[in-house]
Each structure stands twice: as structure tokens, then as C-alpha cells.
């Protein structure tokens, strides 16, 4: 199997089959030919996990015991996300690449058979169901030693195009409710592979945070006739004090009620429901603000900052008029050698307590002197 597709910004996507039947997608801007064949022996893919319903809090929980055996912090010489070179046969058969997206080898969620549907909720009697969804890995660069902040603007633009393409395509699957691209960076937040990469999860249900955000958006719309996130962004622009960076198409700010020592939200000035709906000008303006924000975060203490960077998007088939695309970056680092642990109040009750005012965090981020 080898298929190609032209995308925006001069990006071409080429699909190739992996040895175990998964798919890898290369995103290139230089006309590269993707002819390498995955030489690894064929392996059986793990069986689909299961979803169990926690009726105490009305939340689905995915059970994926096969993930216990996944690769854990291998040395660079054995990194499965580096290109295939010499005898090291990796997840990426090519000797180099620009951006690559492939189906996760140890997925928390996977595509179900054609008869699948989410069962109706009946409290403790809600039946267990296969853990339907999609889990993909996106590799930002072949360079093992880099992080997202080190990418060139052109490379970030290619990553953005990959996010947009995967959002658009996965949204067409009839069992998907919402698409969630994200990045974990740093062992402090649970990274198991240090190569610069992110993940794309697509859920067959609305996760708790998305449900809560949607309920708030609906209530605000009913009470005011306006979109909640639009009002929140308008307040941040008016207040100015928490804005960290901005350009003609994007605004980055520490939110008024930040939960983490360093928390930055990045939103397009022209509201859209998801990545696929971004216009060309907004896409082209994204790399500069993304790189500025992440380099400011890194520069606060001049040490590698662990963070989680999450794209929040509207559900794929409903309420797209009241939910807004934005990028949330959160770091548990509150000082060199000190982390903000989610202890009793946060973990058990969901009641966050901030050790610093959001305005202080924003001021520290703005005060970082960036290099040329």
C-alpha cells in the first residue's frame, strides 16, 4: 500500500503499510519519495481493551492491560521513534523523515468492528463495551535531541498540517465523538519515550473535561446568547495583564483562574471549532506564537520544562457553534527542583489550589529574554 495526498502549505501526505498491518503517514514538503519497506517480522496487534462505566461520577474508564508491556524510556540507540538506520529497525522504516504519524503499537483505544455502539447508561448495570477509539503517534522531527521549541517555523507548520489532516479524517469515523491531539514532555508528566513526539487520541465518548466544558458553554449560551470562550478571550484581551504573546491571528495568555504554576492558553482571534477549520492565514501565523510561547516557558528557569500541551476542540458532530479551538499548555514546575504535585485536594476532590497568582506567572513569562 502506498497512497499520496496533497494538503495545504505545500505538504504531501504519503501512506505506507507497516509490517503488522498498521499505517504510517509521512508529511513532507520537499517531494521526498517514501519507498522504504518495514522489514520487521509481522507481529499480532493487541486485542481491543474495554470501557467500564464509573456510575459514581458518570465517567467511562478505559482498561488497556496490554500497555503494561510497552517500551519504557529506552536509550537513544534503541529509540523506536528515530529513523531506521543500520540494524535498528524502528517504527519509521525510512532513513529520515520530516513529520510522521502512525497507529499506536500499544493503543488505549482502537477501531472496533462495524457493529459497535456505545451502550445506554444504566448506572451500575451499564454493560462493559470494547474500548473503541483511535490512538496515533505523531513524530515532530527525526532529531532525537530536539524538542518542539527547537523546531523551525516551517517544521511547526508541517506539524500543524498533520494535526489538521488527522482531525479532519478521524472526525469522519462514525464511532468518534471528539479528537484530542496532545503532547507530554518530560518524565515528570509520564513520558515513556524521550524522542520529540505527541499523540492523537480520538474518543468514542465525551471525556469528563469535555463534557464539563460543553455544559458550561451551553449554560452561558442559554443565559446570555453568547459563546462562553469568546467572552473569556475578550476579557483577557481587555485586561491585558495576563497576555504572554500575541500576533495578528493568535493570542496567548495565562487564564484568569489558572490551575497550574505555569499555564498558557493559545487561541485564534477568529474563532473556529477545530484545527481543520483554521484558515490559511491563521495556520501560517501559528508557528511564530507557538515557538515564542514554548521558548518563554523554557526560559523561566532556564531548564527543560515538563509540560502537557493539549488541543481542545469541539465534538465532531454537535455543538460546534459554541465550542472553540484552543491550545492549553500546563507545567507542574513551580521552581527549580520543585513540582506542583496534584495531591489530596486536586486528585481526590478536583479542587485546585494555586501557589502563585496567574498575573505573577504571566509576568515571569513575559520577562524572559528570547534569543534571536
TrEMBL record:
Q: Name one Pfam family in it.
A: GalP_UDP_transf
Q: Which UniProt keywords apply?
A: Carbohydrate metabolism, Galactose metabolism, Metal-binding, Nucleotidyltransferase, Transferase, Zinc
The Galactose-1-phosphate uridyl transferase N-terminal domain covers which part of the protein?
A: 49-207
GO aspect biological process, one term: galactose catabolic process via UDP-galactose, Leloir pathway
GO molecular function per UniProt: UDP-glucose:hexose-1-phosphate uridylyltransferase activity; zinc ion binding
**What are its GO cellular component terms?**
cytoplasm
Domain (Galactose-1-phosphate uridyl transferase C-terminal): residue spans on this chain? 219-367
Gene3D superfamilies named among the record's database cross-references? HIT-like
Catalyzed reactions per annotation: alpha-D-galactose 1-phosphate + UDP-alpha-D-glucose = alpha-D-glucose 1-phosphate + UDP-alpha-D-galactose
Region Disordered: start and end of each range?
A: 1-46
The EC number(s) given in the record are 2.7.7.12
This protein's cofactor list reads: Zn(2+)
InterPro entries this protein is in? GalP_UDPtransf1, GalP_UDPtransf1_His-AS, GalP_Utransf_C, GalP_Utransf_N, HIT-like_sf
Looking at the keywords, is Iron-sulfur present?
A: no
User: Where in the sequence does UniProt note compositional bias of the Basic and acidic residues kind?
Assistant: 13-45
Which pathway does the protein contribute to? Carbohydrate metabolism; galactose metabolism
Spell out the family assignment given in the record's similarity comment.
Belongs to the galactose-1-phosphate uridylyltransferase type 1 family.
Recorded protein name is UDP-glucose--hexose-1-phosphate uridylyltransferase
